[in-house]
Amino acid sequence: MSKLVNISIDGKKIQAPEGANLLQVAHNNGIKIPSLCYHKKLTPTGACRLCVTKIKGTNGLVMSCTVSIKEGMEITAFDQEIEETRKHILDYLLAEHNDHYDGTYYDEFREWVAHYGLDKPENRKYPNISKALNYKIDDSSPVLTYDASKCIKCFRCIKGCDEVQGKNVLSFSERGITSYIIAGFDQWNESECDGCGECVQLCPTGALVEKPHRDEVKLDKLDKKVITTCPYCGVGCQLELSVQDGKIVRSDGVEGVLPNDGRLCVKGRFGYDYVHSKERLTTPLIKKNGEFVEASWDEALDLIATKFSEIKEKYGNDALAGYSSAKCTNEDNYLFQKFIRVVFGTNNIDYCTRLCHASTVTAMLKSIGDGAGSNSIEDFATTDCLFVTGNNIIETHPVTATYVKNGKYAGKKLIVCDPKWTPLVKYADIWLQPRLGTDVALLNGMIRVIIKEDLIDPDFIEKRVDRGMEAFEELKQLVEKYTLEKTEEITSVPKEKIIEAARMYATARTAMIATGMGMSQQVTGTNNVFSLINMMMITGQIGKERAGIDPPRGQNNVQGATDVGCSPLIYPGYIPITNEENRKRVAKLWNIDFETLSGKPGLTTVEIMHAAYDKKVKGMYIMGENPMVTDPDLNHTEKALKKLDFLVVQDIFHTETTPFADVILPAASFAEKEGTFVNSDRRVIRVRKAVESPGKARDDWRIIVDIAEKMGYSIGNYNTESEIFDEIAQAAPIMAGISYDKIEHQGIQWPCPDKNHPGTSTLFLEKFNTPNGKGILNPVEHVPQTEQPSKEFPFILNTGRILYHYHTSTMSRRNKALTDFANESYVLMNPGDVVKFGFTNDEKVKLTSKQGELVTSLQASDQVAEGELFMPWHYSEAPVNRLTRSDLDPFSKIAAFKLTACKVEKI
Amino acid sequence: MERSEILKQFEPANENMLNILHALQNNNSQNYLSEEDIKIAANYLNTTYSHIYGVVTYYTMFSLKPRGKYIIRVCNSPVCNMENSTKVIEEIKRFLSIEVGETTDDKRFTLELSECLGRCGKAPGMMINEDVIGNLDNVDFKSIFENYN
Predict the structure, then answer these.
(1) In the listed set B36, B58, B80, which residue is the last one of a domain according to the structure?
(2) Rounded to whole angstroms, how far apart are CA atoms A356 and B19?
(3) Of the candidates B35, B48, B54, which has its C-beta nearest A172's C-beta?
(4) Is residue B118 part of a domain?
(5) Other CB atoms within 10 A of residue A3 CB
(6) How many whole angstroms separate alpha carbon A516 and alpha carbon A361?
(7) A168 vs B47: CB contact, 8 Å cut-off?
(8) Is residue B30 in a domain?
(9) Dihedral sign computed on CA atoms, order A181, A142, B38, A410
(10) Euclidean distance between CA atoms A99 and A109, whole angstroms
(11) Are B53 and B75 in the same domain?
(12) Distance between CA atoms of A229 and A239, rounded to whole angstroms?
């Protein structure tokens, strides 16, 4: 930290760090020097000149936003001359400004104009010429409108897009008085703008305003503003929801609070419409003679209790199973797993984490003892080298990606490894494009280079790796055969790039790995991550700040749902169920007889479906999950669901799964709940209620408690979510020190073992969470994929996500802004293949695999290599998982979503 | 020439942006930067479209509209103006039957105004593409324009 210096502003003595920005120091000390172009998130611009001050010893007026403070500075912030200058500047700006105001946005400029009395035309010196300038309005974007007549050319939008979001989409057109902001070719909707709205949030006038709900919003009519956590991906952005007439009408990023510090993506800012969708479930529904009919809560819960009890009685506890939800809160999920374990009496509980990062977590648990990300989201900006593999981070974790881009622009190194082009490639120093399913070979090849060039960290290996150099020698021996030639042959990555990437990663002072679905959703998923960890260990790129491995979580609360025990193997806090001591501890906390807790590992997500198909699981309780889109091999899933004796689905909408239910229960959405989520960097963050649930929809946890009661069990008497969390803190030692009062302002990262602990931003600084505290190397061989292209199925299909949609899109496709950006399924094919196989762009094609078929439209794109295809999986009308295989990774039971042999035919 | 051939002459660095844009514009038979030109330059320089578009609209030597094969730029800076460039402009307008900013029907000439060409000694002056022509007060424009086919 830099040393403190003494300055004075208008006689007030102030101490602040040397070199700090004078305007910010003044603001921090309550001296409200007027400013417009300055924003604390941005580099100073000095465009508006409103922040002029006098500095003793300096001639003339100085813009305080451009001054770094030094010892002894004497500043005059307010005197008659300065104030007159400011008034003159504002008057001048007003001359070319359209000052019509409709009350739908916060206008800083207007406030200063009023402050200097210039809201009264008679006080202005200059006539208004804005009409004569014929400023244009660009209303083409689905999410915002730019009105050049209200623009004061402060650069905040351009800098926000560049410096905060790293997108560089905006620029100035023309010059002088006629200049204005443009996106793309002066047409917002055809530009690269992805609609994050950072520019809107930063605009100090009404030049950039939101389009959705603009006709409804009246700032002076708002009921309230509520700070909560975004319901989409696992970044955990803090939102401020504006509520008017009981409806959410705006969502802004909360400045100054981690993880997002005001940043949002298009989903977080514009994706809240679904909360008020007319299609929300508003009443319990019971299937009678094949039709769903409305029912009372009592009727529905009685039926559920009777049916589940019957199945339990007749077929035993393990004939029941539950899917919990990565979208629900920790409190909901905690009580759900408690319900499954106490009331059903089984460990058959899992959820979609098994379909995303199960292999990552399996590998991480085995080698470093923790499956969570080792670093903080903001570390992505400051680590010296970032290795992003199988992770389309710009689209899947857009706000984390802003930190990645910030780092890139600050000169940090970026390696992207992906068989498919992703937008991050534009920012990468190196793009490795291995063939699908050859990651282990590539990483072994890189490890071999690292060893040959002596870029290992022997000290780290000795001190932190189990069996030290002996284990290293085993790895060294295994990778010996992955010569550059062989690695290139298997992966198709050129030798030079393998060497360059290996050097870049190994020699960086600190390096982080961000691994995603591309690595995990393979039958070799666990081995892929073992290889990553091997490379990380031998280079010592973990165990220090800004180094480690981070699997960004796909859903808002994937991390939390597992943290609180929604797993067939562990209790809250990653405590194995198989250990009798652990069962005794949990039984005591839950106030039940420990022998009633099953010590038998439960079934995983896909295994539950297989068991249902085999009629071993007879009854299922699904909370906020949609297996009829998420599960691999959907034809099989459909048959399995149909074979169930009784299925309860609890959700906020009808989904592709609800038709198979016997009872559907309407639940509350994130905006109607109190609770907590845990984001990708283990931060426990608050979710707060902003609006009422529609109709008879209820909180998930209250429904669970009621079903338990109807089945003759009490799983606890809770009045508030805070009380549930206090029980979670008792159950899970990693959260023992966290309670609602401690996370009121900003979340805390677990482990937080006691009340006085500040939380942990970086894991493994001292030791790993393995039994002996050492990291474990797991040398693994490349195994050719069993699924290979054949004469009949010549293509290999890869699947993934896009920015505008989320998961099974039950939420995201109910937002006009998001569907305006993207609403149609497609398959990408290399242009070479398009020509070779005689297709044309945009034509409808049928994709067939051994498992099933679907129809979608074909797009020629060099984002994919020849012989490979890519399809987003969000669209239920072209459900990719009709094609995918349910072959499992033997260690983690994750399915091989990323690799399916297919054929493509004209229709 | 293929655009890719033009780009090969320059390193993909921002300091080459103006040179690249001039080369692309000169290569365009209609003497302007098409959307395709801008996209290709943006991709080559790994930047966004608006950055190129902003530069193109800032500099008057670039055009976003198709122009004639030859651009006539009549200097209208103070010296030429005092030496009666206004008359020169009027004569050319009449001779080619176009206004300033317009292109002749045969797509041969576009008439534009320019800041100082640095040939004040031979004012009033103009440029036709790369050629500078001075002492225009009493000339036969027909004989000049005949040379540009």
Answers:
(1) B58
(2) 48
(3) B54
(4) yes
(5) 8
(6) 11
(7) yes
(8) yes
(9) positive
(10) 10
(11) no
(12) 6
Structure tokens at A101: 């105001």
Same domain, B75 and B140: yes
Q: Closest-CA residue in chain A for B45?
A: A426
Q: E-strand spans in A656-720? A: 663-666, 675-678, 683-687
Residues of A in contact with B43 (CB under 8 A): none
B79 shares its domain with B130 = yes
The length of chain B is 149
Task: Show Cβ contacts of residue A324 under 8 Å, excluding neighbours closer than 6 positions.
Answer: A332, A333, A336, A337, A340, A349, A350, A351, A561, A566, A623, A624, A625
Among A437, A445, A456, which Cα is nearest to A485's? A445
Task: Give Rg (Cα) of chain B.
Answer: 17
Render pLDDT for B9-28 as a digit per residue (tens, 0 to 9). 999 999 999 999 999 999 99
Among the partner-chain residues B47, B50, B57, the one whose CB lies closest to the CB of A184 is B50
A905 DSSP assignment: E
Same domain, B80 and B126: yes
Identify whether the C-beta of residue A746 lies closer than 8 Å to the C-beta of residue A359: no
**In the beta sheet, which residues pair with residue A208?**
A146
In a domain, B131, yes or no: yes
Phi-psi region of A512 (alpha: psi -120 to 50; beta: other; left: phi over 0): beta
Domain boundary among B26, B58, B90: B58
Q: Are residues B76 and B141 in the same domain?
A: yes
Which residues in B have their CB inside 8 Å of a CB on A? 35, 38, 46-51, 53-54, 57-58
Q: Which residue has the tokens 């529904």?
A: A285
Nearest residue to A419 via CA among A446, A447, A442: A442
Could you give phi then psi for residue A835, rounded to 5 degrees?
-70, -45
Looking at the structure, do residues B139 and B78 belong to the same domain, yes or no?
A: yes
Calpha distance A456→A439 (Å, rounded): 20
Give chain B's domain count. Answer: 2
Pick from A171, A175, A426: which is nearest to B50 by CB? A171
Distance CA A91, CA A123 (A): 9
Residue B65 resides in a domain: no
- Burial class, A41, CB count within 10 angstroms (exposed 0-12 / middle 13-18 / buried 19+): middle
Distance CA A685, CA A679 (A): 8
Chain B hits for A174, Cβ within 8 Å: 57-58
Chain A residues in contact with B33 by the CB 8 A cut-off are none
CA separation, residue A868 to residues A398, A420, A799 (Å)? 25, 9, 11
Domain interval for residue B93:
70-145
Mean pLDDT computed over A466-485: 96
Q: Tell me which chain A residues have a C-beta less than 8 angstroms from the C-beta of B46.
A: 426
A391-405: average pLDDT? 95
Integer Cα distance of A112 and A105 in angstroms: 15
Distance between CA atoms of residues A379 and A589, nearest Å:
37
Ordered structural domains, chain A, with CATH: 1-78 (3.10.20.740), 219-269 (2.20.25.90), 297-356+557-681+691-729 (3.40.50.740), 358-550 (3.40.228.10), 795-906 (2.40.40.20)
If asked whether residues B46 and B76 sit together in one domain, one would say no
pLDDT, tens digit, for every residue of A843-894?
999 999 998 999 999 999 999 989 999 999 888 888 888 888 877 778 877 7
Kindly provide the ipTM of the predicted complex, given to two decimals: 0.85
Q: Is A175 on the interface with B (CB under 8 A)?
A: yes
Strands B126-128 and B70-75: antiparallel
Residue A1, pLDDT above cutoff 70: no
Same domain for B33 and B74: no
A174 in contact with B at a CB cutoff of 8 Å? yes
Summarised one tens digit per residue, pLDDT across range B58-70 is: 998 899 999 999 9
